[in-house]
TrEMBL record:
Leader peptide range in chain numbering: none
One Pfam assignment: Folliculin
Encoding gene (name): LOC107326820
GO BP terms, alphabetized: autophagy
Keyword Cytoplasm (UniProt): yes
Family: Belongs to the SMCR8 family.
Name under which the protein is recorded: Guanine nucleotide exchange protein smcr8a-like
Main location: cytoplasm
Subcellular location: Cytoplasm
Length: 97
């Protein structure tokens, strides 16, 4: 059994636990293969984590671009409403937060 944690924007705390396991009814086989299984699980885990870090970084960058776009739209709308005095609008302070 090999446990690892991968980053996930949708998961609680932005991390999701995973477990890799080799299951066999033959205990001797598992014990005989244990060093190789352990090494292969570690290699697979490192590959998963490396890919996950890249994917997570891309997701974060996309979310940041989305937030920047939303902030710009809200700021633009606020300025238009201020100029037209058409009624309620968001404060600049609220947009900054």
């Amino acid at each position: 059994v090999h446990h690892l944690t991968l980053y996930d924007l949708e998961a609680r705390g932005f991390v999701r636990p995973f477990c890799l396991a080799y299951v066999s009814a033959d205990e001797r086989k598992v014990m005989r293969l244990f060093p190789e299984l352990s090494a292969q699980f570690s290699a697979a885990s490192e590959a998963l984590k490396a890919g996950n870090r890249r994917a997570f970084a891309r997701e974060l960058e996309k979310k940041l671009r989305d937030l920047d776009y939303t902030r710009a739209v809200l700021h633009r709308e606020t300025e238009l409403q201020k100029r037209s005095r058409a009624g309620g609008f968001y404060s600049t302070r609220a947009i900054e937060k």
